[in-house]
Amino acid sequence: MHHPIALVTGAGRGIGAATAELLAAQGDFVIVNYVKDDKSANDVVKKIQAKGGNAVAIQADVSIEAQVMSLFQHIDALPGQLKKLVNNAGILFAQSPVVELTADRINQVLSTNVTSYFLCCKEAIKRMSTNFGGSGGAIVNVSSAASRLGAPNEYVDYAASKGAIDTLTKGLSLEVAAQNIRVNGVRPGLIYTDIHRDGGEPDRVDRLASSLPMQRGGQPIEVAQAITWLLSDNASYITGSHLELAGGR
Ligand code: NAD
Question: What InterPro entries does the entry give (predicted)?
Fold first, then answer.
């Protein structure tokens, strides 16, 4: 009997951590991937284990192919089989108009936010197509409301990376549908996480909350609930879709 394994990239904090904790509570063996700050990834693992769940923290920069390969080799050695993937790792740089963006920044955003999703999807699909007797698996790509809004004068590079993710989700979902692998996306709006500090505006969610139809920002757990639902058999006929998680925005 093989246990279902779920990989969540960038799961040391924020939406990834909340998703890892919820998947573990629902019975998956969870891989808490992190790139730096192993303390917070280990804290997520400890929290999961304290509640009787199973998890392991594995370091890998998912924008680098060799590290993705070793991450999946590590997973192959575990007593279980990969059933779920959440591509969640992402970066956001300080607000800037497009004319001031450097090639270095653009390339970093694209490799972290887009290349990593391609690489992890590729390795996951190779395994999901045969795991559990060919019964398939499920992938959720974390996009952003920015993919449709464009984020002018703020983060057009980030928004464009999320637009690429949306197209990856659509195209890949069609490529692998016959293998019973479902690929969906979520588009969070303004969620309370540290990414806004990295984006140079720690209080962004509070500043904009009253402009949202629901008059408030979202919590990581509210995104995690949608992701875990899309990954579950309760969403068994859904593929190539995007859920808007933006309080009506
Ligand atoms: P976060 O910054 O807390 O989480 C992102 C995580 O990704 C961090 O733990 C970071 O270390 C990790 N990461 C970055 N580069 C990595 C790499 N190369 N390899 C492995 N891990 C890496 O922010 P969050 O808000 O929880 O973001 C999670 C996802 O949600 C991101 O894809 C983000 O774009 C998306 N999102 C967030 C919001 C929001 O308002 N917070 C809105 C829309 C979309």
Answer: NAD(P)-bd_dom_sf, Sc_DH/Rdtase_CS, SDR_fam
Q: How many domains in the chain?
A: 1
CATH number of the domain bearing residue 191: 3.40.50.720
Instruction: Say what the pLDDT of residue 3 is.
Output: 84
Q: Which atom of ligand 1 is nearest to the CA of 18?
A: 26
The token pair at 103 is: 């090639």
Active-site option among 117, 155, 158, 192: 158
Helices (H), ranges, the chain: 14-25, 38-50, 65-76, 103-110, 116-128, 131-134, 146-149, 156-176, 195-198, 204-209, 220-231
State yes or no: pLDDT of 1 exceeds 80.
Answer: no
3-state secondary structure of 55: strand
Q: Please provide the average confidence, as pLDDT, over all residues in the chain.
A: 97
Residue 32 · residue 58 · CB < 8 Å: yes
What is the domain range of residue 116? 4-245
Distance (Å, whole) CA 6 – CA 125: 13
Question: Ligand 1 centre and the CA of 196: distance in Å?
Answer: 10
Q: pLDDT at residue 116 above 80?
A: yes
Is 155 known to be catalytic?
A: no
Which among 13, 15, 74 is the best mutation to test ligand 1's pocket, defined by most ligand atoms within 8 Å of the CB?
15
Distance between CA 226 and CA 232 in Å, rounded? 10
| Statement: the pTM of the whole predicted model exceeds 0.95 | yes
Is pLDDT above 70 for 12?
yes
Ligand 1, CB cutoff 6 Å, lining residues: 9-10, 12-16, 33, 35-36, 61-63, 88-91, 112, 116, 142, 144, 188, 190-191, 193-195, 198
